[in-house]
Amino acid sequence: MNNVIFLTGATGLVGSNLIPRVLRNDNTSQLVLLVRGRGERDARRRLTDLLAHVSPELVSDDVKRRITVLEGDIPAERLGLPDSLYTDLSSSVTHIIHSAASVQFQLPLEEARRINVSGTSKVMQLAQHAMSAGKLQRVAYVSTAYVSGKRSGDVFEDELDCGQDFANTYERSKFESERHVRSLMKELPITVFRPSIIVGDSLSGRTLTFNVLYFPLKLIHRGLLRILPGSHHTPTDVVPVDYVCDALCHIFLNTNKGIGKTYHLTAGSSRATTAGEVVDLAVEFFNETCSTRRLRE
């Protein structure tokens, strides 16, 4: 039986980098992508443009025949799909990878919950229907290491709700989303993945988004960030997108292990860089145009 893999977040950094890896992992798998757009044609155009940037070889006709693009919306009932399409999907899907999320830190809490919590709930409903149909083998949920919120010290994979507070609505909504996913682990074959700060490819540097770490780097490059408040020694846990996607695919597609488990896809305390090292490297790299001065503690 050929695998039918349903992927959300296909136009995001993680999702777009998962597409080529999933297709290369098994040359018979069918990939079903949920993409927002103004109709199916617009959704497919968005995806084609994206694939041409991420992995140009995927634009071939042979590969296109293995990809089905569905125009939908994660928080909507039945994912915004017509009843017939939703029924067909739930009766055929073997693997679900839910990587779609809003990564904006300052969304109003209810909006963050609508996308990240309600959206995840709708994907889990699909998984439950697929499980009832007897085809579902695995579910992967892409969470974040920052469900730990403002906790300090060691944070373990089997820990979630420790009464922690959160720095922003993104962390809180992803915590609530993971809590819901974990509540279903006894009935669904779920694996949770918690990446830290995701940046571009480790070899090419290629990225689709310039969030989080890229903002201060851009300001340093333009000479607009003269002083960066904070400690030189603050740990900065950064992982490249290829590491995240390779690890997820290995655990999720190539082994039966991992069901009911959570994995931290992070640098960890022994390998994380520091804020000072990031600034030092940026200033050194941008030395011809940057006027930022490094302040040593």
Describe the structure in brief.
38% of the residues lie in helices and 15% in strands. The protein has 297 residues and is an alpha/beta fold.
Structure description:
Helices cover 38% and strands 15% of the residues. With 297 residues, it is an alpha/beta fold. It folds into two domains: 4-196 and 237-266, 3-Layer(aba) Sandwich (Rossmann fold), CATH 3.40.50.720; 206-235 and 272-297, no CATH class. The strands form three sheets. Strands 3-2-1-4-5-6-10 form a seven-stranded parallel sheet, sandwiched between helices. It is globular.
Strand count? 11
Order of helices and strands: EHEHHEHEHEHEEHEEHEEH
Question: In the CATH classification, which architecture of the largest domain applies?
Answer: 3-Layer(aba) Sandwich
For the largest beta-sheet, the strand count, sense and barrel status come to: 7 strands, parallel
What's the CATH H-level superfamily name of the largest domain? NAD(P)-binding Rossmann-like Domain
Work out the strand percent.
15-25%
Q: Give the distance, in angstroms, between the N- and C-terminal Cα atoms.
A: 61 Å
**Residue-averaged pLDDT:** 90
Q: Structural class, from helix and strand content? A: alpha/beta
Helix content: 25-40%
* Spans where pLDDT lies below 50 across 5 or more residues: none
Instruction: Determine the oligomeric state from the structure.
Output: single chain
How many structural domains are formed by the residues? Answer: 2
Give the helix tally. Answer: 9
Mass-distribution shape: globular
At the first level of CATH, the class of the largest domain is Alpha Beta
CATH topology of the largest domain: Rossmann fold
Q: Over all CA atoms, what is the radius of gyration? A: 20 Å
* Order of strands across the main sheet: 3-2-1-4-5-6-10
